[in-house]
Write a structure and sequence with these properties.
With 415 residues, the chain is of the alpha/beta class. The protein is built from 15 helices and 13 strands. It has two domains: 230 residues, Rossmann fold (3-Layer(aba) Sandwich), CATH 3.40.50; 165 residues, Rossmann fold, CATH 3.40.50.2000. 45% of the residues lie in helices and 16% in strands. The strands form two sheets. A seven-stranded parallel sheet has the order 3-2-1-4-5-6-7, sandwiched between helices. A six-stranded parallel sheet has the order 10-9-8-11-12-13, sandwiched between helices. Helix 1 links the parallel strand 1 and strand 2. The longest helix has 24 residues.
Length: 415
């Protein structure tokens, strides 16, 4: 079987954001089983277009696994003003902003040429936002959903300025229509959790789904027991160019940290936040209190997690499953999280994590964990056991392979 994987970003390096890490590991797993050709868009970063040096390094890395790698740098501007102008210009369009953002005539040409050269048995579309290319597909396709995107947009439309709420509400309606059209045409829809599968089927009755969860590199994310870490240190991982992470850290900076700092004893000696584009409110809080350490992007998160016994996840918006949660569990940290933060992961409160929904509950749960070594040991061991049982990349690759095989046969088997 020959697979053509069409991605809206370059899945390299493996240590990037959650969706990137998911795609990299599944590309690697799929390529170990079948002949896989990768076509990936390379949209500009906020600082400008992708450089040939960056793309060359990614191409070289991915060619270790893939039969061929084609990277297409897209021309849309990556700056905030350019995005705002594009959003305004697309207001009357029936296409979602991100469908237009990922559209590239060169990518369309490359897609056609690649199919004519390799004759794929199945095409993997890595997001619903690649809908404008579907008419060019020459083989059955599976559609991956990193999240149920319309659900995320609908949640996001509840916050922000009046203009932002109007924009995201309209985009949610556009994306819902894209999901309805494309999900029904896909041989199967690859979801990251049972929760997301149920959400998609509520939007698109009759959509065929299979679950290939987010996973974790169990060898890479292996640390000494949580007993060896400081119970008065906590860490958060996540790029803040993704709204749910940005919202979580703004809530932390404005409400949760002041409550922690005001509690008897202060609860924490250090809170480390690791991830791209830290929110301005977070930087302001860090400038005012040396106990908050904001690192920005780092190549290896493990040293920051190793010294902290507690992993904080105050997410209020989300979908899919959070790779950072799985990484934290794999490293045996004590997770203190909202219910939204662990959504889609079969975790039980008090057995795998401590739940907190308000700033005061975060204070209470983190104080409880800091003062109870036996609790920390028990939660850390249970979290590691959960990811070992459910979230290794090899069995997840087997599930994706089964989805491809069904799609190539045209059997449209939902699992």
């Amino acid at each position: 079987m020959t697979v053509l994987w069409f991605s809206h970003f370059v899945p390299w390096p493996a240590t990037g954001h959650g969706a990137l890490a998911r795609s990299f590991h599944l590309v690697r797993e799929a390529a170990s089983r079948r002949e896989l050709h990768l076509l990936a868009l390379a949209p500009p970063s906020p600082t400008g277009p992708q450089t040939e040096e960056t793309l060359g390094a990614a191409r070289e890395g991915l060619e270790r696994y893939c039969a061929s790698v084609t990277l297409v740098a897209t021309a849309q501007g990556g700056g905030r003003m350019s995005r705002a102008v594009s959003a305004l210009a697309g207001w009357p369009s029936s296409r979602a902003y991100w469908e237009r953002w990922y559209w590239s005539p060169e990518a369309q040409s490359q897609l056609v040429a690649l199919q004519e050269r390799v004759h794929p048995d199945v095409v993997h579309l890595d997001t619903v936002f690649l809908r404008p290319y579907v008419e060019q597909l020459q083989a059955p396709f599976v559609l991956n959903h990193h999240n149920v995107e319309s659900h995320l947009l609908a949640r996001r439309s509840a916050n922000g300025s009046r203009a932002a709420r109007a924009f995201y509400a309209r985009e949610a309606r556009k994306v819902t229509e894209a999901e309805r059209v494309l999900s029904l045409h896909a041989e199967t829809n690859v979801m990251v959790s049972d929760t997301d599968a149920e959400r998609l089927q509520s939007i698109v009755p009759g959509a065929r789904t299979c679950v290939v969860a987010n996973g974790v590199d169990l060898d890479f994310f292996r640390l000494p027991p949580v007993a060896e870490a400081s119970p008065r240190e906590a860490v958060f991982l996540g790029g803040m160019d993704w709204f749910p992470n940005k919202d979580a850290m703004e809530w932390f900076a404005t409400d949760i940290w002041p409550a922690l700092a005001a509690a008897p004893g202060g609860v924490l000696d250090r809170m480390t936040v690791v991830g791209r584009e830290p929110a301005p409110l977070l930087r302001t809080a860090a400038a005012a209190d040396p106990r908050i350490d904001v690192t920005g992007f780092v190549d290896d998160v493990r040293p920051y997690v190793a010294r902290a016994a507690l992993f904080l996840c105050p997410m209020r918006v989300g979908g899919g499953t959070r790779l950072k949660i799985l990484d934290a569990l794999a490293m045996g940290r004590v997770l203190v999280s909202t219910a939204v933060g662990v959504e889609g992961i079969p975790m039980r409160e008090g057995e795998h994590y401590l739940r907190a929904e308000t700033p005061q509950e975060f204070v209470e749960q983190m104080t409880r964990a800091a003062g109870d070594p036996a609790l920390r040991d028990r939660l850390g061991a249970a979290g590691r056991a959960l990811v070992e049982r459910e979230y290794g990349w090899a069995p997840l690759g087997d599930r994706l392979e089964a989805a491809y095989a069904s799609a190539a046969r045209g059997t449209r088997v939902a699992t």
